[in-house]
């Protein structure tokens, strides 16, 4: 599977105001940015795809949203450091929200994975989020009201027939990281939560959902009988960043 799922965003200032009524694209990272921006947050996002990023930034500007962006391959340690340096400068050394939404998957039998597969999938799905938290910590602490939200997966909670063992292991580690940081950084007024959705209609999931038999199996295992929409994830992510969730930390949703 390709790496279209990679991207991230940071937000400054507690979201406020009313939710916008504009339609949301079927890309989770876009939906999260739009949700936070429509609630009044100033958002800085990143993407590997410059053309796509510029197109999105133009759309958000037309809607009156305060969104900026950087070109960044979140798998690169150097580029992550450059990104956070930019964020620190733009937000005067303070950050209220960090959303870790970098992820990709290559589904193979465990015995077929190579050392290169393991390194790439762990670096993309786990190391990038871990390092971003380290880099963002002083900014989140300085805000005196920091919130970290990790976008995980149900594959990190229960065994599934899709996603692959490395992806599942990485997402399981993300859930545990969220728990550890919730305890370790609580003294600094930094909350940490994880959102672990089932199948959501994104490009990353379309490879599976385009298979009719697999799509039927997914629907049968879902109480609502369908895959989720990006908006249904972004609304929860935004809530976890709101003052209304100020007593919620160490939560897996």
UniProtKB/TrEMBL annotation:
<protein>
    <recommendedName>
        <fullName>Tropinone reductase</fullName>
    </recommendedName>
</protein>
<dbReference type="GO" id="GO:0016491">
    <property type="term" value="F:oxidoreductase activity"/>
</dbReference>
<feature type="region of interest" description="Disordered">
    <location>
        <begin position="1"/>
        <end position="22"/>
    </location>
</feature>
<dbReference type="InterPro" id="IPR002347">
    <property type="entry name" value="SDR_fam"/>
</dbReference>
<dbReference type="Pfam" id="PF13561">
    <property type="entry name" value="adh_short_C2"/>
</dbReference>
<dbReference type="InterPro" id="IPR045000">
    <property type="entry name" value="TR"/>
</dbReference>
<keyword id="KW-0560">Oxidoreductase</keyword>
<keyword id="KW-0521">NADP</keyword>
<dbReference type="InterPro" id="IPR036291">
    <property type="entry name" value="NAD(P)-bd_dom_sf"/>
</dbReference>
<comment type="similarity">
    <text>Belongs to the short-chain dehydrogenases/reductases (SDR) family. SDR65C subfamily.</text>
</comment>
<dbReference type="InterPro" id="IPR020904">
    <property type="entry name" value="Sc_DH/Rdtase_CS"/>
</dbReference>
